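Risk register update: the risk that structure generation would not scale has been downgraded. Supporting records follow, first protein first.
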Amino acid sequence: MSNEATAKGEERLLAEARHKFLSLFGREPTAAACAPGRVNLIGEHVDYCEGFVLPVALPFVTLIVGGFNDTEECQVVSVLADGEELRTSFPTPSAAPLNRGSPAWTNYVKGVVANFPGDLRGFNAVIVSDVPMGAGVSSSASLEVALFTFLEALTGIQIDPVKKALLCQKAEHEFPGMPCGIMDQYIVTLAQKEHALLIDCRSLEAVQIPMKLDDLVILVVNSNVKHQLTGSEYPQRRAQCQAAADRLVISSLRRATVKDLKELERLGCDELVLKRASHVVNEIKRTEETADCLRRGDFKRVGELFYESHDSLSTLMEVSCKELDQLVDIMRSAPGVLGARMTGGGFGGCVVALVAKERASDVKEKILSEYEGRPVFFNCQPSDGARVLRLS
């Protein structure tokens, strides 16, 4: 039996959420909204160096329905895939200051409510989702932006999409305490069907890049591993990249060139610092080139850039692992695969690949027979971002 995960679809999720809301609160919801998960096509470990990233939204969503309850209390129920219900309640920000607390998932909800502009009355809400959790496809940003969009629908207050993304990022910084970059909230908010989003992490400008796949699919393969780390790997790499920039007397490696890499070598720069800088300088170039190739429809070159990116992440940035490397190596020899690379922070998580639609099943079978772990597959097309849903 195939272990491929497929989206339930908004219609089914909406019906599920409405039924649950009616059974819990005895009335029909008055507002509904959803927001997708995402995968980054290329541009890894460059956001903190003010580089470019190129994510797309996935056809999986977090969906929220609800309505005002004529109190100063917010009651939220999250229904998990196995039917388990997680519940939380807290006062509106105008009634009492909101504070971080446990369980951890409630901090994502509280953070958005605390950062939503304007006074909020009490409300009831039900959350359902088919965004895979723990797979590196940003279920957290999906929840944040879906909730913010639901609050817009509920109150009639409309916020500029870029400001919305920034407020959701602020919410994640303040309440869950995750110092995330802007990529996840940006793509979840601003995504367009059949487009990738080229985000400049220095200026925070974003450009829609056409990505009509036709006979191709984006295949996301969850390795189903996440190695236990000390917690120092990410800040170490960030510090190493900044050390390279400091040695070159520039603010960030966004300003560095291949010529600067030779200068670092001439200066006797630490080997690890030089390796990290080499990845960043070339990954930024690869991301810009990938966007140009998508505009031209040159998917063959995009696939080559995927492989180059993965090899750099594995050997220079050293954030891959044997499972991710194995998945990419299996796909290198699989007919129909144009390119594959690890995506996300690394040390586990997912591989993203461009695959001929007619060969996707064969590729999955090859992975299932050769990969030492237990992969989960997602066939994807670039999808729309957050939106309000009609209940009528």
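Supporting record for the second protein:
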Amino acid sequence: IDDVVKIQAFIRANKARDDYKTLINAENPPMAVVRKFVHLLDHSDQDFQEELELMRLREEVVTNIRSNQQLENDLNLMDIKIGLLVKNKITLQEVVSHSKKLTKKNKTQLSDMMMMNKQRGGLKALSKEKRVKLEAYQHLFYLLQTNPTYLAKLIFQMPQNKSTKFMDSVIFTLYNYASNQREEYLLLKLFKTALQEEIKSKVDQMKEIVTGNPTVIKMVVSFHRGARGQNALRQILAPVVKEIMDDKTLNIKTDPVDIYKGWVNQMETETGEASKLPYDVTPEQAMAHEEVRTRLEASIKNMKSITDKFLSAIIVSVDKIPYGMRFISKVLKDTLHEKFPDSTEDELLK
């Protein structure tokens, strides 16, 4: 019997080895062979451990990136301050040394010259040539305002790092930050034309409108971060935010370790004795406790409920969202539909 068992084991091992070779090397292995090895695809503890390790590493990378960005910003600011310090020191020394050279007569002449320059300025003092030039500028700005094609083409040709400064210093100023209805209408026309131009020229895949950080979208967001946008945001979301902040019993932690520590602290507070459970645990060890799993499920349920409240608040308050944002959303949807006619409604709405 022992010999028979050995022979059977040997035959089975050889058969399993042949099947595995067929699975690895054959282009289309038979179903019977595939079925034997399907169980290997089941999730194991090792997969879970690797997933946790990957999440930890991702968190670490993101933290380091943020830290590096902050350091770079601080370094740039320090460079500017050092530069200003050196420049101002030199300028101050020059002024002091130069003022010593001025005699009383020179100071009087300098004062007279400054007074003449002051009198020379102003619109009344314009020469004929300067008046012509001023009128030409007025026509230029009128054309730039009323025909958005020129600025629209210029906006998305700007490098990303310079576009924000360009928009704040030139475009928003040119439209006087949409302080009246006419200027707001013209600025929206510019946003519309620029967005259509950018999508037609630069967006090759639907997802690029999110991942590519389009200049025009950035510009629209930047514009609506002013008082109007903030007031709308406060009206729409303030009640929900206040309700959540006032609810001291609300628990929306979804980290098993945090939930476990909170549970241990609560037990110690209630009993007045140190808990026998270890304080520092891994997520898997924390999840081994029934209480932690129950609390985690409750937290996830709370989180979903809160998310629904925010979503409902936004949906029922569409009319309170600034018209400019809704209009640009419509332009975005229509232009994307035109560029990608085969895309589904769900993809467009996302």
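The chain has a mean pLDDT of 82. On this basis the risk owner (M.S.) recommends closing the item.
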